[in-house]
Amino acid sequence: MDVTKYDHSARGKNAPLYEYYAKKIKDETGVVSGRCLDAGCGGGYLGLALAGITDLEFTFLDVSPEMLEKADAHIVEDGLENRAQTLHADVHKIPLPDECMDLVISRGSIPFWKDPGKALSEIYRLLAPNGKAFVGGGRGTPEMRRQFERNMKKDGFSGPAGKRRRPGGPDDPWQILKRRDFNQILKDVGIPRFSAPIESDGRWIRLWK
Hints:
Blueprint: H1 3-11, H2 15-29, E1 35-39, H3 45-51, E2 57-62, H4 65-77, E3 84-88, E4 101-107, H5 116-126, E5 127-137, H6 142-155, H7 173-179, H8 182-188, E6 194-195, E7 198-199, E8 202-208
Parallel strand pairs: 1-2, 1-4, 2-3, 4-5
Antiparallel strand pairs: 5-8, 6-8, 7-8
């Protein structure tokens, strides 16, 4: 993937998508202060949008050094140096202590996790008492989704092995999210409190302590 081109789109014409989900997370969780982890953050787009409407302090985690370089730059651009840091790590083995986060968020990363059960267990481990997680993917309202897909097609983003990823095709992350039985996955790894519905604006897994 062309990281620079993707970053330009995410910070530009696709920015309303992240603003939409940041508001959804704030309104639903009510978590507006404390510590937040943006897991599989890419360039930090969701966390940065949430930082703009909360007092949370952020850790942006990703396995891609290139994406974290973008996140570092955006932290400076948004004046968040005193509230945010980046962490190069794999979501399947997060080098952070138990119960250190009040909120964990992630958008668009979970379809690419090799073992989503293990990763979700790690996220649950990090939640402080009364902590919440909001993890999944989506492309906003139907109108926003159509615009997002037009943007992606226009920009020619590729799927696996250099093939163009067709919205709605088998390698579309949204289709992967819909196919996986997250209710069973979460039960199998012993997470006691969760919901994983398919909604009009995506699929969002909620965990809470």
